[in-house]
Amino acid sequence: MAADRFPSPFEVPTPDGAEGWESMYDWYHLFGPERRELDEQRFWFADRLHHPDVLHPYDEIQCECWWQALGAFNTRVFAMPPAFGVDQRIVNGRLYVTPVPAPPEDIAARAEEFGKRAGHYYERWDAIYDEWRTKVMAKLEEIRALRFDPLPDLEPEETVYQHTGHSAGFRMIRDFDRLVLTMYETYQYHFELLNIGYAAYLTFFGMCRAAFPDISDQSISRMVGGLRVDLYRPDDELKRLAKEAVRLGLAERITATEDAASLFADLRSDAAGAEWVADWERTADPWFLINTDPGHPGGYHTYPTWADDPNIPLASVREYLRRLADGTTIDRPTDEVLAERDRITAGYRELLPEAERATFDDTLALARQVFVYIEEHVLYIEHWMWATFWAKSHELSRALAAMGEFDEPEDMFFLRRYEVAEAIYDCVAGWSVGSRPRGADYWRPIIARRREIYTALRAWEPPPALGPPPTTIDEPFTVMLWGITTSTVAEWLRSDSEEGVLRGTAGSPGVVEGPVRVVTHPSELPSIEPGDILVCPATSPSWAPVFGRVAATVSDVGGIMSHTAIVCREYGLPAVVGTGNAVSTLRTGQRVRVDGSAGVVTVLEPV
């Protein structure tokens, strides 16, 4: 049996202790009576790919960045034929989204316009991608150049003698706006190529399904994978550092010392150790500017980067050293993946009539070409840009706390973006006139209550979706990235699902059995033992080193083009993604069978 629909977004109860949670988020992000007639008839799914946990008010900035940019490029710039954008709402601190379909009567005209506009990009893809990297790196340097220090008791003499004409207080107000708007601008670039990249990938999928009705999504995706992209470079650097440690005779010292600071201090005491530490430090910028969020990286201010906490990447280096000592290879099986890619491609191409092979070749070549960007943009935007944005935000919060606007730096993140602008102005105004700002006294009770609400919201288990199930889902991101399909939704609604069986998207082929290891936070990654089945909300590129230890991966969210699915194919590991509730259903220690070819996880024995 299956229910007809998910709960109405207007009937979701507020968790005990979280009354008034709406005040934490901007009004346009909330369900409201003015939009009830529209919103109650739409299908909303929990965006656990980007935001598996409750949002801090300040972190709403991240949602806003992609909400507007994705929509504008789908709807207004490239005229994506089947879909407009992806709308957002926040319920009890969790982000829910819904794809907005294009009017059926507009699709033909939009398809014609899309062909011209996207075709311009496809024909010049590599050159435009080079331009894109230059633009994004320029924005990264703009954010890096911003400084948020406590305001001085007296402006330095240069302010007078160099005729600067404005004060440090003005610059704090100005630079916060610059910080946010630069991130917003970067997200315009983010979707300049991503939407049409997925569209090219979907075109290849559609062509293959039409030509080969029985072909699996995995077989199609494996014809595209196996490319060497910079997203894997951070993990490759850890492997290189492990090999360098062996060459320099440092393996035993590195493996024996748990704390990074103590290890680096010890290694600096001799030439070989100092050489390795210098190598580490050169590598850290930019390759360790890697966010550690579970799921899509860069969505929260609370997670450290590898550079912030070198113990995280160092744990992987130690693991690689242990594997090297055992004689185990630590390199990704890229050659095998490429060989399998070419074998599958040649087999299907041979089945086509001669007249259709050129189109197949061209469509596949474009899919492989855009795939590089689809993977690499994560490094530039979700890691380097967001890591730098959060670092500057923390710098600002420390400065405001030092000046008495907040009791402690973390307080700032319990304010919305526009409230932070108000707090900065209050602080600057008090500094400017030599008076006492109102800030800490004004914000203290608000922040205290929001902390209580935040704690209560984190204990709430959100439903996977809200509203009526859709009849069709054809928005590219929804299908390829989130893995939300009509069959996925139907499975969520089923009340008679087979006990002990979870179904999701077949992310990477193969069948293995092993013990479950549930991981919801990067701090839990060191607990993974060789042969474990990793069960998580979603994986982040920062988790790459664990794929050398696990036997398979099962995720709550994600589609065939999610990071979890892609990286498992690159590492030759089975994966079932988009199960919806693996984390809440499975327990560490349970033995399960993961069938990555069928998209099925079977519990073999309880804990």
Automatic annotation (TrEMBL):
Residues 528-599 form the PEP-utilising enzyme mobile domain. This is PEP-utilizing enzyme. InterPro entries: PEP-util_enz_mobile_dom (IPR008279), PEP_Utilizing_Enz (IPR051549), Phosphohistidine_dom_sf (IPR036637). NCBIfam families: PRK08296.1-2, PRK08296.1-3, PRK08296.1-5. It holds the Pfam family PEP-utilizers. It comes from Actinomycetospora chibensis. Gene3D superfamilies: Phosphohistidine domain.
